[in-house]
Amino acid sequence: MRARAAFSSSIGALVLLAASHSRAAEPHADGVVVGEYGGGESMREPGADPAVAAARAKLAVGDPGGAAIDLTRVIDSAPDNAAAMALRAEAFNRMGRPEAALVDAKAALERDPRRVDALENLALALLLTGRFKEALDIGGIAIDLDPGRAAAHAVRAYAQEKLGDREGALWDMETAAALEP
Question: How far, in Å, CA of 52 to CA of 61, rounded?
Fold first, then answer.
């Protein structure tokens, strides 16, 4: 019972922590950058854009506004860049602008429906705007595509908590904690 009380009081902070977790990009032996996209999705991104890498670095040091500015330039010059849109959605979520994050996450998914980072950022934006059932559903899709995503589990846990499913919420939060100790 005590664990559930602690869970309820700290889940919001855990959701934001898990959703904001990202790691730096690393060069691969073949020169392709392998990095963390939008809160942790590993992807091989041929010819990775240095401006996107710079924006990712700004997010890693807590500068979502600077990242959003850089990513806006990228998107202005390459309007079909789903990676930049998904990452800017993350920046907007971190800036407390979930409505803007909704727009970018949806645009990224229109271009690449299987972008788990865009799904995570969409789920978080839905959560932050009080659309808990939609956040639960989108978080579930992200988890179906990649069950190893701590942020998706954390967002889904918070949505479940808000919808009254404490058992499901506890399971997802424990899973998120195990994935990102």
Answer: 14
Q: How many residues make up the chain in this entry?
A: 181
**C-alpha distances out from residue 74 to 50, 64, 167, Å:** 10, 15, 42
d(C-alpha 64, C-alpha 47), whole Å:
23
For the chain, list residues with pLDDT below 50: 1-44, 46
| pLDDT 10s digits, 26-39 | 332 323 233 333 34
**Cα angle at 93 between 174 and 149, to 5 degrees?**
30
Cα separation, 118 vs 116, whole angstroms: 5
> With contact defined as beta carbons under 8 Å apart, do 127 and 155 qualify?
yes
Beta-carbon contacts of 76 under 8 Å, excluding residues fewer than 6 positions away, are none
pLDDT in tens, 35-71: 333 343 334 354 568 889 999 999 999 999 999 999 9
Q: What is the largest CA-CA distance in the chain?
A: 53
Give CA torsion, residues 170, 172, 178, 181, to 10 deg: -80
Overall pTM > 0.90: no
Q: How far apart are CA 152 and CA 176, in angstroms?
A: 8
